[in-house]
Amino acid sequence: MTPPPATATPAPPRTPASAPALPADRHTLRRAARRVLLRNWTGAATVPSHGLYPHQWSWDSAFIAIGLRHLSPLRAQRELETLLGAQWGDGRVPHIVFNPAVPLDAYFPSPDFWRSSTAGAAAGAPRGLETSGIVQPPVHALAAWLVHRADPALSGGRGFLARVYPRLVAWHRYLTEQRDLGGGGLAAIVHPWEPGMDNSPCWDRPLARVEPTPPGAFRRADLDHGAAADRPTDLDYGRYVRLATDYRDRGYRDGTTTLRTPGPAFAVEDPGVNALLIASEHALAEIATALGTDPAPHRHRARALTSALLERLWDQGAGQFLCRDLIAGKLLPERSAAGLLPLLVPDLPRAVVRTLLDTARGTHFGLGTTVRLLPSYDLRGPAFDRHRYWRGPAWSNVNWLMERALRRHGERAAADALRTAILDAAAASGFAEYVDPYTAEGRGTRDFSWTAALALDLLAAPGPGGDDDRAGTVRDGEGER
């Protein structure tokens, strides 16, 4: 179908032609995905891409480990262990772990901006390792559980779960206690980079309160590797830098439940972050059971988080979950794919599930009706841009999560169609970072690690309606056991 102009409101949805079959040569696609992961492996972790993202990123590593388990369960375990080795004393898992061998000017904000080992000393930042001071969505316990299931004997022999479990518990405790800035039981974000959907239009209103750092005060390395039309604007970047600077200068201290001054200028409860926290609490319950530890606290916390999610972020009129601006004290009206990710939560009321499915297929997201891949933002929203970072493009990790959610709720045909669409886009785009939701044209960088990793995971399914966890590994002589 012909897409609308980048900023225009799309035409009413049309039913697309039948989705094509999975790539004819699955083996070729699998080997291509493996080559990306082998090339991007640094010896202890995987970079998202060597040019644009030359360090280790937090939720990237979780998704990468999910795919790596089919190539090398040992390497998948190391991926998560390396990330968790950079955990701060207060429990936070930083969103970037910096490689000291990479030049400072290769990425901004660089280690000398964050100054984690000094500015974050009071919060327990590692002394001999530089990281950022903010976080990303908590996919890690889910990833750890899936990695364990790929080779339980190897995992047990290395004591993998026993070593990562206390770190994951501390990570979730940080989010549920120190980041409950609204006092309503949900984790809050204090920077637009934290929910992973960095440039979402959901942040436009709260960011408007932030005085930006002047563009001349910093140099954006991202534009050396990506087109300006695909990336955040200089104005947005200036606001990101201001928020990060202020957070650093507060010693990376989080606000209080009353958001007293000095506190964050940006504080939002995001449904995607909290849905992934709930899914990972359920995974922690499975890990606890495997270790012979009581899973009840994790199940109790998952239920409490689910209740808070419904109470604070569900909007029946919108037909989805919305973000809550804690500074303004109200829900934000913008619709993003994050508001559909609570479909991952196993204990949602059936009526809420039905409404979310209708919204996903309706005019705002058009999944399976107007587009084959879930866009990151409302197709009919005034800020929709099918090319610009998180303002409309489709991302493989969000679609992987949606595929899993659809399968969880018995939507097997829709899940199979989405799986096919993800693989087709990965193959056609050269494992692009993100794609145009209408044409699947690749945008951003290529040979992107989580795109390749999640393609590997989807390829590991035995066929339409296959194993939800895809726990079995696939080995054909490549990689390391």
Automatic annotation (TrEMBL):
Q: Name one GO molecular function term.
A: hydrolase activity, acting on glycosyl bonds
Q: Source organism's superkingdom?
A: Bacteria
Q: Which family does it belong to?
A: Belongs to the glycosyl hydrolase 63 family.
Source organism of this protein record: Streptomyces olivaceiscleroticus
| Name listed for the protein in its UniProt record | Trehalase family glycosidase
Q: Looking at the record, which segments are called Disordered?
A: 1-25, 461-481
Bias (Pro residues) ranges? 1-15
Q: Which residues form the Mannosylglycerate hydrolase MGH1-like glycoside hydrolase domain?
A: 53-451
- Supply the alphabetized keyword list: Glycosidase, Hydrolase
Renumbered to this chain, the Basic and acidic residues biased-composition regions fall at 467-481
The opening ranks of the lineage are: Bacteria, Bacillati, Actinomycetota, Actinomycetes, Kitasatosporales
